[in-house]
Amino acid sequence: MKATMKKIIETVPNFSEGRNAVKIRKILDCFTGAKGVKLLDHHKDKDHNRLVVTAAGEPVSIKKAVLAAVDVAVKTIDLRKHKGEHPRMGAVDVIPFVPIRDVSMEEAVAFSLDVAKEIWRSFRVPVFLYEESASRPDRRALPDIRRGEFEGMREKIKDSQWKPDFGDTAVHPTAGVVAVGARRPLVAFNVNLATDSMATATAIARAVRCQSGGLRYCRAIAINLRERGIVQVSMNMTDYTQTPLYRALEMVRMEARRYGVDVIGSEIVGLVPSDAMIESAAYYMSLENFTTDQILENKLAD
């Protein structure tokens, strides 16, 4: 008799803390110590002042782990004192859920709503639903919700247009608000530039991102990496199958030439599907008629 496959859902919560090792450890412990949950990756950055956690597991276990981490964040992160390069509106800024195995997008949406309701009920942090869970089309994109950040959200949330999906029209005094939703896999891809000019990075980000007429599935902002004395074009590739990573990198490189600036490196934040990297490798190697069937590990897994 064929064994029943367990439902697996992935979560990639972003926390507004990338510097305090004690706080970061407490957040990570919520995932490492949870039965039925596997901590896949975590990425912390002092300049961004942000922690990105990637974990996967059974839905019930993931919910418990996420809520435990939200509890830690609400109790320990005070956004009134928080400073960082990455835009943020909450101690837990965003909590996406990605269906991985035997979970439909519809089920992931329902799951996200369940978690969102519990966050408001237990922690009194207002919640906005985004991406596939959005209650309105104009709330799908996270940057639109986050615009104004924590400081601006105090007034923004009072506007009837921006009433939270769950909660009162007042931010949590120290933890702000949070966005929760179901979405497809996303690749966080950053490109570093050999300059400290934020004006240059901002111009390049504007040229690359979809909202300004750039690449269709690319969101981009400029980040100042003060410790390294350089700037960065920080991108979220919302559908790497339609807009591949190499295309984003080459467009950043092309735009950078206008300002006499070189690309000195790039990075992946969190995890990335192998197909995204294979496609980029095939492009840079100019491989003809290449397919993933030629990957040794793929054939061994058949």
Chart the SSEs and their pairings.
Blueprint: E1 8-11, E2 14-15, H1 21-32, E3 37-45, E4 50-57, H2 59-76, E5 92-101, H3 105-123, E6 127-129, H4 142-146, H5 149-156, E7 178-182, E8 187-193, H6 198-208, E9 218-225, E10 230-237, H7 245-257, E11 263-269, H8 274-284, H9 296-301
Parallel strand pairs: 5-7, 6-7
Antiparallel strand pairs: 1-4, 1-5, 2-4, 2-5, 3-4, 8-10, 8-11, 9-10
Helix pairs in contact: 1-2, 2-3, 6-7
Defining key terms:
2 domains; 7-stranded mixed beta sheet; single chain; 4-stranded antiparallel beta sheet; Alpha-Beta Plaits; 24% strand; 9 helices; Formiminotransferase-cyclodeaminase, Chain B, domain 1; 302 residues; alpha+beta
The low-pLDDT segments are none
> CATH class of the largest domain, please?
Alpha Beta
Strand content: 15-25%
* Sheet having the most strands: 7 strands, mixed
Output mean pLDDT: 94
CATH topology of the largest domain: Formiminotransferase-cyclodeaminase, Chain B, domain 1
Radius of gyration computed on alpha carbons: 20 Å
Apparent shape: globular
Overall number of strands: 11
**N-to-C series of helices and strands:** EEHEEHEHEHHEEHEEHEHH
CATH architecture of the largest domain: 2-Layer Sandwich
| Structural domain count | 2
* Class derived from helix and strand content: alpha+beta
CATH superfamily of the largest domain: Formiminotransferase, N-terminal subdomain
Separation, N- and C-terminal Cα atoms: 21 Å
The level of helicity is: 25-40%
Count, helices: 9
